[in-house]
Amino acid sequence: MKRIYAAAGAAVLMVCLLAGWWFFSHRSQPAPSTAATPVYAYADLEHVVMSHPRYSEYHHLELEYNAMVAQYQFEQWNYSQKAAAEGTSVQNFAAADAAGTAALDQELQAKENELNNRLKQRYDSLVQEKKKTTPVISQADTLKIVNLQLKLKTLSLSKEERAATEEQLQTLLKGSQADVQVTNRTADEIAALMAPDKAQAKKELDDYAQQVKKDLEGRKADSQQVFQQQLGVLQDRPEPAVWNKEWKDKLDAKEKEMEEYNNLIAAGKKSKDNIDDEISNQKQVIQEMESIEKAREEAARKAALAAQNANKSTGQSSASTGVTKTNPNTDSNAGSTQNTVNSATGYIWPLPGYSTVSSDFGYRSDPFTGKQSYHSGIDIPAPAGTRIVAAASGQVAWANYSTTAGNWIGIDHGNGVYTVYMHCSALIVSAGQNVSAGDVIGLVGTTGSSTGNHLHFSVRLNGAYVSPWNYVSK
Predict the structure, then answer these.
(1) Residue 337 has pLDDT above 60, yes or no
(2) Is the pLDDT reported for residue 199 higher than 60?
(3) What residues are paired with 458 via a beta bridge?
(4) Please, what is the average pLDDT of the chain?
(5) Structural contact between residues 433 and 325, judged by C-beta atoms closer than 8 angstroms
(6) pTM for the complete prediction?
């Protein structure tokens, strides 16, 4: 069994080794690195413009406005609820007051009924007592009594007859089984007896009414206090007309502030449209530059091939082919005593003797449209024909005419850095020519999209325009 496990483990190990060998032997080799070449590009400024602080400020104002509207709607709802609750509270208090008054009447009525029942019981009791002490005889019995009395007074009766007549008379006088009727005299007696009870009952009813009324007024006072407190809370709201006007003023002010920023944003959008137009122009310029760059590379390749063939055929040293083509119009002393050298970069000022900058690098008001636009360099005004010098040594990448740049020159200084000179009246150098710092390369003019004689000087790094102040100083 152990041998089987060992064999299985060896098989698994072998499979893993084979899989590893296959993976390392078949993995793709990294692509060889290529030399860095200049990159020409243009920016999509949609998000750049949208990220402008005014957009975020407008968004902040919009959030504030929405919060104010929500607060206004909440207060409006809250005050309407308070107004409705106030009406309901007033109705409830009036209903409670009416219910309290009705309860007082019911209590007084119940007390009065109780006292009346007690007086009736007293009256019935007195009537029963009168029956016992003063029997009331009916008219028929009265006639019998009168007859018996007359019989006893007028007739000669035997002892037994007289005794029987007197017994019958006493029985009639004590009362009979006939219905008893109260006479006026008996009623007066009973009324006299009940007078103190009636007075006591009246006093008790009056006292009870006063006590109940006092209790009811106390409860009403407590209810009134609670009601006034509730009413004070419910009435704690501003006058509708004043409140609405205040809110209207606040919302109008915020809307006006938003409108101002919206106008700024609209202007920014117009600037963005102008920038888009500028981008379109820059696309054209970039395409021209790329074409020039390709042509220069092709010319250099052909020149190197021709030199190689010439060296092979003549057997001479190739050193003679590296002679620098110089500018026949170079003035080595041009501006040398008046020019400024940037100690950090070694670049010199391209227009000796003229240091005024009429339009700086970055956003500006377009001289043709008056709208905000991006300025890719600096404008240095000078008289027509003023000599323009190379800011640094390099090779002329292009020297031709462009619709927007006019007669313009681009010099390749290596490492992706180009200096650009626009609106020249004349071009002194040509593409492929090597120049040194301070060589005259062109003359100031106003060709292309220009409003007057000046030099538009730009610096491009890896295809993107950067601030010339990073390279030159006045």
Answers:
(1) no
(2) yes
(3) 420
(4) 76
(5) yes
(6) 0.36
